[in-house]
Design brief:
Oligomer: heterodimer
Shape of chain A: elongated
Structural class of chain B: mainly alpha
Order of helices and strands of chain A: EHEEHEEHEEHHEHEEEHHHE
Structural class of chain A: alpha+beta
Distance between the termini of chain B: 26 Å
Strand order of the largest sheet of chain A: 8-1-9
Largest sheet of chain A: 3 strands, mixed
Strand content of chain A: 15-25%
Radius of gyration of chain B: 21 Å
Largest sheet of chain B: none
Number of strands of chain A: 12
Shape of chain B: globular
Distance between the termini of chain A: 77 Å
Helix content of chain A: 25-40%
Helix content of chain B: over 70%
Strand content of chain B: under 5%
Number of strands of chain B: 1
Largest interface: A-B, 77 and 90 residues
Order of helices and strands of chain B: HHHHHHHHHHHHHHE
Number of helices of chain A: 9
Number of helices of chain B: 14
Amino acid sequence: MSKSVLVDITRCIGCRSCMVSCKSWNDLPAMPSEFSNNWDSPGKLSAETWTNVSSYVLEEGDQLKWRFVKRQCMHCNEPACESACFTHSFVKTKEGAVIYKPTELNQDYCVGCRYCMIACPFDVPGFQWDKTFPYVQKCRFCYDRTKEEGLEPACVTACLTGALTFGERDEMLALAQDRISKDPRYIKHVYGEKEYGGSSWLYISDVPFAQLGFKTEVFNRPVTEKAIPSLTWDVLKWTPYIFVGWGALLTAMRAYTKRRAEVHNEEEMYGPVDPKK
Amino acid sequence: MYGRNWSFRITWFRILMIIFVLIAAAAAIYRFVYGLGAITNLSDEWPWGLWIGFDLLCGIALAGGGFSTALVVHVLHKDKYLPIARAALLTSLLGYIIAMVSLFLDIGRWFNFWRPFFYWGFHSVLFEVFWCISIYTTIQVLEFGDIFFEKVKFPALKKILGYLMTPLLILGIILPSLHQSSLGSLYIVAIDKLYPLWWSMLIPFFFVWSAFFLGPAMVTVEGTLAARAYGRDPELPVFQSLTKMTMWMMIIYFIVKMIDLNYRGVFGMAFNGSYESNMFLIEMIVFILLPIFMYAIPSIRTKLWGVVTASLLVVVGVVFNRMNVVFTGMAKSVGGSYFPSIWEFLITIGMWSALALAYLFIVENFSILPKEEHTHSTHTNYGTGFQA
């Protein structure tokens, strides 16, 4: 029963109610903002802003198109952050949420190394740079609301236009396919279905994803569809074999060459340096 | 047995370094009280900066001389390299201490640093790095204990260490082999972030291999510096015979790199004229191919300037490679800009000054460098009169 949200970009009007409700439910402070060329405010995710709506003005012939993209943690099926963390401070729950400091047991095991931030393919986690003892923070998929209160995530509840739909992941995928196939305006792609092994948040759009700041191509090649933890594990799994094998080889070589080696009295060989010379 | 007490000569240069250490210590206290944002230029786009990129990654790589020399001297028993064995161990130990200190400074919740020992995130590369580096540093301290107890007489402890030495030496090669490669594996998660000229499933191989061939070059550079500082003869014959191993290892490195680029179909990216491709070409031509040629030509290799220049290129090249992985290769995908703050630089300078001071103190008080056979009286201080 992995939960999911389907974001239908064609239905978003950019009202940012989701941002307001996220801040108020999670008790996050407001961030000072600056004037800029677009309507994005504050413009990027951070430790205090877990969701953010970006605006895109697209020119198509003589027409202008407005599109708005809500961003937050994608809640990957196999999260890179979870695999990168060496204190289990991230957990992918069976409900689909990827949460930081998840259980009573490891409330405060985070070391603050920020490897999760290097690992995340979507650059989501934010760090409390101004705190003496900072935490990493990001969207929790309203784990408390959905699990304990039986509600939808705050952003979904706040959404006026039905751009966000909350439900089981397979149902959301079916819904996405249904909308795409019935309406020719849509791009025939569900973003989040396969990217980096798939994620709990899914997007459909009538504008190519690349034009809306989605990571579809990197260095002129499509983004990987392999889950990142599996790549790391492909290397890490060899560790015990290398440990034993390399150790055995070294021991054998040391024993073999020792028989031929001369005996040295190391104490006679080295001496302290006299700097006064 | 040396009839000498502890000594540490004070020169102006050493006073300057002590001042750097004190400034760094003050900045470090400020950082612990007010957090990372107060003195660093790190950001959500650039979570890792100078301390991780240079002090940790390069500090550990430059310490590669410890395990490659241990392998050659204590496992293969190539006795002609014995004169450099202890100096290599010492540099390596100090390099690891720098790495540990910079890591401790860099982590946000530093009082939790011991948590990974008890909470096993074995699916994380960082877990392996953390365990290997901690244990290996301990092992190096014990290996150094063998030297320490030559001066500070404590026969019982020295005897115990003597029994432990073989397993310690073997572990002291396995562990660095593992984590030198794991420092590269850290960047496997950065697929689609790290530029494909550096990202590879083989990056653990490139890291451990370069740390290994860097070892002899580092020993050469460091041995020459120490010789100049103390007016001794550099171990030129040792340096020369080390070049053969370094050269062949670098040739293998280069060939594997080319095969890897071709296999992944990104060979052309090296010539696409981008900033990344230019940095990659500099790395390959100036810091890999050039030293290979210098090592290959006898008339360069047999001269002190030749072997030292080539070795310096190898050392700088490995630092250049790590910087390319941490900064150049990541810049395009993470966006934003990062340049270390003055405090990040000052703390880095302070840490390396502390390393130099510790090195000087230890070689002047413990038996690290080989005794010189000829008389010192005939020896004049050569070089530019530089006195460390």
